Amino acid sequence: MPAIGAHVDSEHPLAAAAATGAEAVQFFLADPQGWKAPKEHPDAAELRTTDRTLYVHAPYVLNVASSNNRIRIPSRKLLAQHAAAAADIGAKGLIVHGGHLTAGEDAEVGLDNWRKTFARQADEGGYPLPILIENTAGGTNAMARRFDRLARLWDAVGEFGAGFCLDTCHAFAGGEDLVGIVERVLAITGRIDLVHANNSRDAFDSGADRHANFTAGTIAPELLAEVCRAAGSDVVVETPGGPDGQGADIDYLRSALATAGSSKASSAQ
Asked: Which of the listed residues 1, 65, 107, 187 has the most CB atoms within 10 Å of its CB?
């Protein structure tokens, strides 16, 4: 069974993972709202040798799609720095949001900026671990909110081996039906490397990125479990409530996926 885990506090991620019952752990290596390069993590030695699966999330400020040189160029540099730091501790992937343009700008500008980001890095030997582009919930000129735009993005970056992280809250709040979503994504990207399994506090197509626990949101928990089952990839919950809230969501997923696996095995006999 794929690893199921949680996004936890960056200070002591392995201790937080143990308290949550997470097999996989996701965290930031620097201020998610800042532009500083990550320093070596205080727990780097333990992170390099842990049996838990590690994922690192890039800072939210990063936006390589931007037409603004003061944002795009530092974003490219920051992405490379975080990729190197994440690879150094043995992370399986670096998650980065798809980014956006300002209203009225031509989407092709952002798509081409993404292509140039990967192409420039390829000229330097490529990234040292998979870069997992994550779909986002809001914005009318986002690169990875609507899947028609996502398809155009993949036309630009797919050849460079870009990975994909499917966020269920973002998809639902962004206006993408979760029923059959795995098949639609795979038809576009050919891969789902990680699922961010989050319920949504807000309604379908609200554009609001506000996560909820499995039993407290507007998405049926069984639908979240079905997305995870169909994707077959590692899963990270980014839900509130600390060890208790996230632990309950992880327990629900483990039980639901184990039950689905048992039912599938029985039907095959």
From this structure: 65
